């Protein structure tokens, strides 16, 4: 079992968390102008990065707050965890 460091509650088991998708995906500036194909790309298409990827997570069985994390998609290790109002940290 892997521990995930909730920025509000501290380390908890991974079963307490829900994955929320890729982080830092900007909402379209003119949503009414988008075609169906453009909406499909916004809703369904995400990066499939091998290595570090910024993701959204929710501590669904704890404080129920959302946070961002940089996770290595190869090893599944979390490289950084940060609040939604904080900038993405540099990891390497």
Uncertain stretches of 5 or more adjacent residues: none
Q: What number is the mean pLDDT?
A: 94
N- to C-terminal distance: 25 Å
Oligomeric state of shown chains = single chain
Radius of gyration: 15 Å
Number of helices: 1
Described by the principal axes of the CA atoms, the overall outline is globular
Could you explain the architecture of this structure?
A hairpin with a 5-residue loop joins strand 5 (66-72) and strand 6 (78-82). The model has no long low-confidence stretch (mean pLDDT 94). The protein has one helix at 36-44, and strands at residues 3-6, 10-13, 18-22, 52-58, 66-72, 78-82. It has one helix and six strands, in the order βββαβββ. The chain has 92 residues and is mainly beta. The longest helix has 9 residues, at 36-44. Helices cover 10% and strands 35% of the residues. The strands form two sheets. A four-stranded antiparallel β-sheet has the order 3-4-5-6, with no helix packed on it. The protein is globular and about 45 Å long.
Q: How is this fold's topology laid out?
A:
Blueprint: E1 3-6, E2 10-13, E3 18-22, H1 36-44, E4 52-58, E5 66-72, E6 78-82
Antiparallel strand pairs: 1-2, 3-4, 4-5, 5-6
């Amino acid at each position: 079992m892997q521990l995930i460091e909730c920025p509000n509650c501290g380390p908890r088991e991974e079963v307490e968390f829900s994955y929320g998708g890729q982080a830092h995906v900007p909402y379209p500036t003119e949503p009414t102008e988008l075609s169906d194909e453009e909406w499909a790309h916004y809703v369904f298409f995400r990066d499939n990065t091998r290595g570090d990827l910024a993701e959204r997570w929710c501590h669904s069985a704890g404080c129920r707050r959302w946070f961002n994390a940089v996770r290595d998609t190869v090893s599944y290790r979390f490289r950084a965890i940060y609040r939604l109002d904080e900038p993405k940290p540099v990891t390497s």
